[in-house]
Amino acid sequence: MFEKVLIANRGEIALRIHRACREMGIRTVAVHSTADDNAMHVRLADESVCIGPPPARDSYLNIPAILSAAAITGADAIHPGLGFLAESADFAAMVEEHGFTFIGPSAEHIRLMGDKVTAKRAAVALGIPVVPGSAGGVADAAAAAEAAAQIGYPVLVKAAGGGGGRGMRVARNLEELEIAVPQAQGEAKAFFGNGEVYLERYLGKPRHIEVQILADGQGGVIHLGERDCSLQRKHQKILEETPSPALNVAERQQLLTTATDAMRKLGYKSAGTIEFLYQDGAFFFIEMNTRLQVEHPISEMVSGIDIVREQIRIADGAPLGYRQEEVRLAGHAIECRINAENPETFAPSPGCVSSYHVPGGLGVRVDSALYQGYTVPPQYDSLVAKLVVHGTSRNECLMRLRRALEEYVIGGIETTIPLHQRLVAAADFINGDYDIHWLERFLTRR
User: Catalytic residue positions?
Assistant: First the structure.
């Protein structure tokens, strides 16, 4: 087993990985920017190395600095966490080339699934249904118009190499398409360095449902059920739950079997998430995330399996610690993403945390790197905590979540806790009757 792991990330996910390592008897190295000198993962790690100034490009995206930190501290392996370099095939390859183990999938699989056009082709080859769309990227509005005529309007223009809603536009007719294509190309180029876009049929009321996979690259593949991530604002997930209230037993089994069979054919290794749109009883592949997901804790809560621990074991060459028949998915879990933002305008709210009290009790978990006196820096993502609640039933989980939200106190900055309190009291959410567009409509009501 590894003796020392460098964690190439920050915030709550760096702390989450540190905890898993410590429970396995593995020493940790935290890397950090000067803005994170007092971050909790830096305080708790066995060693820490400052790798640059606050801008991410000069620190958390600075591959030479990270590899140098691993070398001078004698780390055996590097865990990329999520975001930043987690889905960089070049980084994964460089980690291995410099004699360290990358705790994640192969560079080949990251590269394959990192481009949505090639990922879609791979999905077809693996027997996964896909959303009808263009055969590949479209170079300009004329090519897009030709593809859209075959697909049928409305269509979604999507960046081939991005995510998070960047480089994405809806076009309901030719006139809108001629505007949407250059806009999406420009945004994709600015955010991802790749201006390629492609088209997909736009679905009116889909659910966003994903399957959590663990695979050891030795033929062992298991799923930890599905997650419903349909509560989104501007394509950013706000709240996730498992299992999905939308699926029946037959639909769920078909989805999970399709996902696990595909990953076995691919020879995939490590944790991964296959994401689908679901509408009218049909599932369509949209992308695969070759990394740990923000919402992984709800899968851990219903399965009792530590996903990060399994990632580390698999990277060290061990086979999966579980067979599918040994996985017992019990109860219901919901995660609320708590952001340092105004709950109505969503304007960022960095600053000093003047008071901090986390909820507790049976079935309540908080993943956060906050503490009283900590200053949330303005340079990074606004996610500051994940409130995760588990219950024996969805109703019990909802009641527990309401209580936990009432107890959660984060003073000195604005957070989205009040938004989540509104969400869990909404009749549509209580009834499980929502889709990926529901939250946008809900936010216009007062």
Answer: 291
User: For the segment 352-361, what is each residue's pLDDT rounded down to a tens digit?
Assistant: 999 999 999 9
Give the strand pairing for 221-233 and 282-289.
unpaired
Q: What are the distances in angstroms from CA 186 to CA 159, 161, 348?
A: 10, 13, 25
CB 443 within 8 A of CB 428: no
Helix axes 307-315, 11-23, angle to 10 degrees: 70
Average pLDDT, the chain: 96
CATH homologous superfamily of domain 207-442? ATP-grasp fold, B domain (3.30.470.20)
Fold assignment, 132-201: Dna Ligase; domain 1 (3.30.1490)
Rg (CA), the chain: 21
Structure tokens at 284: 């369509």
Among residues 159, 163, 152, 199, the alpha carbon closest in space to that of 183 is found at 159
Q: Yes or no: is domain 4-103 CATH 3.40.50.20?
A: yes
Strand pairing partners for 368? 385
pTM as predicted: 0.91
Extract the tokens encoding 141: 């509005």
The closest of 429, 247, 412 to 336, measured between CA atoms, is: 429
Q: Which residues contact 9 (CB under 8 A, 6 or more apart)?
A: 17, 60, 79, 80, 81, 82, 83, 84, 86
Q: Largest Cα–Cα distance of the chain, in whole Å?
A: 60
- Please state, as a whole number, how many other Cβ atoms lie within 10 Å of the Cβ of residue 446: 4
- The 10s digit of each residue's pLDDT in 115-167 is 888 998 999 999 999 988 898 899 999 999 999 999 999 999 999 876 667 88
Give alpha helix (H) positions in 234-331.
249-266, 296-303, 307-315
pLDDT, tens digit, for every residue of 73-92? 999 999 999 999 999 999 99
Cα–Cα nearest to 388, from 338, 323, 431, 343: 338
Q: 285 CB contacts (<8 Å, ≥6 apart)?
A: 120, 123, 128, 129, 130, 131, 274, 275, 276
The secondary structure of 252-268 as a DSSP string is HHHHHHHHHHHHHHHT-
**Residue in the block written with tokens 């078909």:** 254
